[in-house]
Amino acid sequence: MKYVLEVLLVYFTLTVESSQNDPKLPERPEFILPCNKSNPDINNCVIRSLNHLRPYLIQGMNNMHLPSIEPFKIDRMVIENGRGSFRIRAAFFNVTAYGASNYTIKSVKTDVNRYTLELAIGLPKIDIKGKYDVNGNVLLFPVRSKGEFWAIFLDVEAVAKLYGKEVTNKEGVRFMKIDKLAVDFRFKKSRFKIKDVINHGNIIGEAINQFINNNSEEIIKEMKPAAVIAISNHFKSFLNAVILQYPLKLWLPDA
């Protein structure tokens, strides 16, 4: 009898420890194509997983409150630049971007032990429209402009570096959270157009349109550091809203 009790006690102890170390996981959703950390070809596995995710990103996932990326919509984004020749604060509203689903994955570099990912993608064309509100100074001249804008970017190349970390909920389930996201981009051609409701129909409005298109490369160069920060913060929140809903082991079974 004593032996039976000892066996039952050992079994109970092991069961409790096992449940604490590996709590019951929810069913893996169909859009997650997992990769093992031990996979020697982990980079290509990540590429397959990202390509597998494409139709779900295009369709949108209502159960996760994740809208479609085609078009991709941003309710509000603010870019502030306090240095150089273009010292302005630009707020963008109701932004709609077309072409995000046509991404091509150029390369992936993964360090699964440190939870870092470097991703290079290409986009043939991005069309963007929305509303804007700009205050500041361009060169030595004060600028106040508000209205609608349209922009086209061709042959876009972007690099994103994700730095993740493990977080654990009160039930002991581990998740991965993006702690830092750095984005850089470049493109071959761009074209801008604005409809300024403040200066529309007068010489100032036409001059602003002409100035933007004639100096687009210089404007983007000046504004790029601030734009990169705003874009990185937006997509960090966007991605965390997805991955924090599902335990780490659904993405990396042997983690």
TrEMBL record:
<dbReference type="GO" id="GO:0007623">
    <property type="term" value="P:circadian rhythm"/>
</dbReference>
<keyword id="KW-0090">Biological rhythms</keyword>
<protein>
    <submittedName>
        <fullName>Uncharacterized protein</fullName>
    </submittedName>
</protein>
<keyword id="KW-0732">Signal</keyword>
<feature type="signal peptide">
    <location>
        <begin position="1"/>
        <end position="18"/>
    </location>
</feature>
<dbReference type="InterPro" id="IPR010562">
    <property type="entry name" value="Haemolymph_juvenile_hormone-bd"/>
</dbReference>
<dbReference type="InterPro" id="IPR038606">
    <property type="entry name" value="To_sf"/>
</dbReference>
<comment type="similarity">
    <text>Belongs to the TO family.</text>
</comment>
<dbReference type="GO" id="GO:0005615">
    <property type="term" value="C:extracellular space"/>
</dbReference>
<dbReference type="Pfam" id="PF06585">
    <property type="entry name" value="JHBP"/>
</dbReference>
